[in-house]
Amino acid sequence: MDRKMVADNSYWIGYVDDRKVPFHRLILEKGTTYNSYFLDTEKPTIIDTVDISFGRSFVETLKEYIELERIQYIVINHVEPDHSGGLPALANKAKDAVIVTTELGAKELKEMYKLYNREFLIIKDEDTLDIGGKTLQFFETPYLHTEETMITYAVEDRALYSCDIFSTHIATEKLFNDLVKEDIIEDFKGYYSLIMHPHRPYVQDMIEKIRNIDIKTIAPSHGYILRDNPVKYIDIYDEMSKPKEDKKALILYSTMTGSTRKVANHISEELKEKNIETIVMNIKEDVDLGEVREKIKESDAIFFGSSTRYADMVGGIEKVLKMLKYMKLEEKIGVAFGSYGWSGEAIEIINDYLRNTDIKLVDSSYVIKFTGIDNLQFPLRVKFAPKKEKIEELKESARIVKDILVG
Ligand SMILES: Cc1cc2nc3c(=O)[nH]c(=O)nc-3n(C[C@H](O)[C@H](O)[C@H](O)COP(=O)(O)O)c2cc1C
Ligand SMILES: [Fe+2]
Ligand SMILES: [Fe+2]
Fold first, then answer.
1. What is the Cα 73 distance to its own chain's centre?
2. What is the extent of the structural domain holding 281?
3. Is 404 inside any structural domain?
4. Which ligand places an atom closest to the C-alpha of 384?
5. Cα 146 to ligand 1 centre (Å)
6. Which is deepest, 196, 246, 251, 399, by most CB within 10 Å?
7. What does the pLDDT read at residue 1?
8. DSSP 174-189
9. pLDDT tens digits, 354-407
10. Closest ligand, as measured to the CA of 341
11. Does the residue 406 lie in any domain?
12. Are residues 180 and 261 in the same domain?
């Protein structure tokens, strides 16, 4: 039998699933593997199992390595059935094995597999376990990608059994990243983006925990075992999960009696609510163009507003608009808005100005193409002072701009 060794006396005992596997509303075009590990120590230990569809064959394979009754510990890093699915079949044979998992993990496993008469060992962050010849240390990694999750570090082997974390969905028989010729980074990053990125603050917490341990091999539960340059893969997670620079919005408006200011303030309130740093500026005739220029440079989204007076703009907003053609705006998004009485030409004139710069203009056409939403009007046109219903609409529009901004 071809034994795949991960470390001394530690073997891969998983399953290569080359079907197009349906998973999390996706189809894994390249299949996947369920990596389970057998640590052949004085207290023989299994780390994670395989998908529920392959539980029985998993147990059969394992018999070629050990008499199942001798197994002392079954470590379950993550309860999802693509890893814990082999547990009922295994636990049934390994009658005395203690199941090692987090508190929530134990609660969920008991309910899922009716494991009421089993001994569980509940671990807390950084707890260790002597398995006779090897020491395991556990780290809780909540929400990566479900709440109960943990990872297991084999101290002497410097091997990190990281379950879903650092995984790749690919059906590979080669298994070790140093044996594969193709570049695996794209698949590795693709997996990260789908499964881990939605939980990125927790990814940062996890990295902080494992930065202090010396890692020679990362043995995850799907796809490649990373024994060539594992740190590179931790760095990829670190880089991709780092909070990106905060986005800023600037709302410039000119008004006669304050209705356009109200519009500006409603937009600002909603953007701030959504954690976008937002500055509102009243642009009067005697505007300090230098100051406005600096504020525009620092901003990612800029709203330009004016009410309409005899079919034209008011205040100093046109001076600002004239300055734009000398500025570099291609990375920024622009939105026109204003309060008006019956025709609202000023809003359209502002929009025309913006269209003639290299700013990314958010108009109705852009919004439909970006979001598929067709019931919001861009530029933002408000008759007189905004009323209740219009305020809601303005807030929704602000949220759309925020979505475009943070992409
Ligand atoms: C002198 C004057 C001229 C106006 N001309 C227009 C106009 O040409 N077209 C229009 O749609 N509204 C016109 N309005 C209506 C204002 O645009 C409307 O009252 C708006 O809500 C004012 O907003 P503000 O308080 O931000 O200036 C005019 C209002 C005034 C007082
Ligand atoms: Fe999972
Ligand atoms: Fe998984």
1. 33
2. 248-399
3. no
4. 1
5. 55
6. 251
7. 62
8. S-BGGG--S--HHHHH
9. 999 999 999 999 998 878 888 899 999 999 999 999 999 999 999 999 988 886
10. 1
11. no
12. no
